[in-house]
Amino acid sequence: MIVVHAGSEVVPFSKTGGLADVLGALPSSLAKRGHEVIVVSPLYRSATDKKPVKQQISLGVRLGDRTLPADVYSLRIGEHATAYFIANDALFLRDGLYVDRNGVDYGDNSSRFIFFSRAVLELMEKLDIVPDVVHSHDWQTGLVPAYLRTLYRDYFKGTVSVFTIHNIGYQGTFWHLDMPLTGLGWEYFTKDYLEFYGKISLLKAGIVFSDAVTTVSPTYSREILTPEFGYGMEGVLKTREPDLFGILNGVDYGQWAPEHDRLIPHPYGMDAVDLKQDNKITLNKMFGLDDSGAPLIGMITRLAQQKGIDIVIEAVGRMVAMGLKLVLLGSGDKTYEDRIKDITGRYRGRVGARIGFDNSLAHLIEAGADMFLMPSLYEPCGLNQMYSLRYGTVPVVRATGGLNDTVAEYDPTRETGNGFKFRDQSADGMLLALKRAVDAYNDRPRWQRLTRACMSYDFSWDRSSEGYELLYGAYRTKSYLHGYRSKHT
Ligand code: ADP
After folding, report:
1. Engineering a disulfide at 196: which of 97, 201, 446, 482 sits with its beta carbon 3.0 to 4.6 angstroms away?
2. Relative to the CA of 19, which ligand 1 atom is closest?
3. Please, what's the b/e burial string for 411-422 (b: 16 or more CB within 10 A of its CB; e: otherwise)?
4. Does domain 2-250+462-487 have CATH number 3.40.50.2000?
5. What's the gap in Å between 17 CA and the centre of ligand 1?
6. Residue 292's pLDDT is what?
7. Given this model, what pLDDT does residue 489 score?
8. At residue 480, does pLDDT exceed 60?
9. For residues 367 and 207, what is the distance between their CA atoms, to the nearest angstrom?
10. Over 70: is that where the pLDDT of 479 sits?
């Protein structure tokens, strides 16, 4: 199949979050399965550093009543995959992707991504490619499925369109007067199409116009149908329920595997798990934590309400009383940063924290901690619990989204499962799960068997891309009613 991915960020060219990781890994993984894959993103300043090559083509892209130019750059990424970049310096050659230096949204974000979405389809026409699948991601490319079924319908007649929601909290909502910029008539400004409580929602455009809608885990695909998780989109999603699927993200084991991790002092595989202890010693020393053999729990997180930081702060005293030590790496919300600094002062020797973004330290925490804590309010997929499993660092998680799908409660009698889960978003709920984890930790031979069991889980991209491949195939042949759902959701 010829598969085109369209998205606003792609590792290693641009990144603000997990979307970039997906678009950095999924295209190559699909290409390895024999497909011809193209990934299209804007040419931001960060992407120019990678020296993509300017192509001999240029595009004229309608934006409202103007036609704006776009240059096209490209770079091969693996044997059967190519990255294309849409260049318009006025719109994209900026340091931030969506926000300025002060964290304020750019005022022209609607223009920027309406332009980009339309440019993706103009590019296909210019390259004379009729893709089997156009797969777009998040609100920034929500108009791609809309254009495929309206303005560009004739050219893309047989093309299947797939739209993935990576986090429904971000909906690309703009005032209604931006409607003419889209080139779609006012007849599409109704509740069946782009209109969302008097405004335009580009995320909604993606949901209503695509053939299939996916999210990044099966549990999250069910959660977003409810008012608690749907952020107001649950009603719209309900209308698409038969075409809504959850496919778990994968892990890049080239980066995240303890046996060949160059960022940790003592690499270890299944046959040398003892070396994990040496990483723990390094980590303890780095944070001045006592080295009495008490279980060490790690956290690496954006400091945002979504991540459940409040209940950790509330419970930290009781965690320490339970015999746990905590090391936390995070950045984000200033008030959380201050509160974290405050608790490290109060529990010196038991709690350590680093405020900032530090990839090397993230690897050391995965390697050196005994357990990993993710008490998220919601978590579309989550990556760190999957990294933790590979590092033999037993996850303790809230049973939501991808956390629920990747972590199974440990049963000490039958020795099944790979971690500890709680449902209640409360300090008490979390502490109960932590108590079970500490009890298991104190039974050393059992804990070692659990550690090894965790390390044997496989969440590689191969599995995820197989899921997408089956989905594409099912929608191309319209056979999705007979089997896709039962196997992959
Ligand atoms: P989200 O995209 O919601 O932040 P994910 O779990 O999907 O959550 O991905 C977060 C990624 O960012 C993980 O790879 C995690 O290790 C990394 N990360 C988050 N905060 C930090 C930090 N302060 N330093 C280093 N890496 C971080």
Report:
1. 201
2. 2
3. eeeeeebbbbbb
4. yes
5. 7
6. 85
7. 42
8. no
9. 39
10. no
Ligand 1 shell residues, CB under 6 Å:
17-18, 300-302, 329-331, 357-359, 362, 381-384
What is the Å distance from ligand 1's center to 19 Cα?
Answer: 11
Q: What is the C-alpha to C-alpha distance for residues 139 and 161, in angstroms, rounded to an integer?
A: 15
Note the pLDDT tens digit of each residue in 142-177: 999 999 999 999 999 999 999 999 999 999 999 999
Q: Coil, helix or strand for 93?
A: coil
Work out which ligand 1 atom sits closest to the CA atom of 302. 20
Q: Are 367 and 299 in contact (CB under 8 A)?
A: no
Q: Which residue has the tokens 């039958």?
A: 414
Pocket residue to mutate for ligand 1, from 357, 365, 378, 406, most atoms within 8 A of Cβ: 357
Looking only at the bridges linking them, the beta strands covering 199-201 and 160-165 are: unpaired
The answer to whether domain 2-250+462-487 and domain 258-458 are alike in fold is yes
Copy the structure tokens of residue 80: 């059967």
**CA-based nearest residue to 419, from 397, 399, 435, 401:** 397
Atom of ligand 1 nearest to the CA of 17: 2
Q: Are 38 and 48 in contact (CB under 8 A)?
A: no
The CATH homologous superfamily to which domain 258-458 belongs is Glycogen Phosphorylase B; (3.40.50.2000)
d(CA 227, CA 223): 9
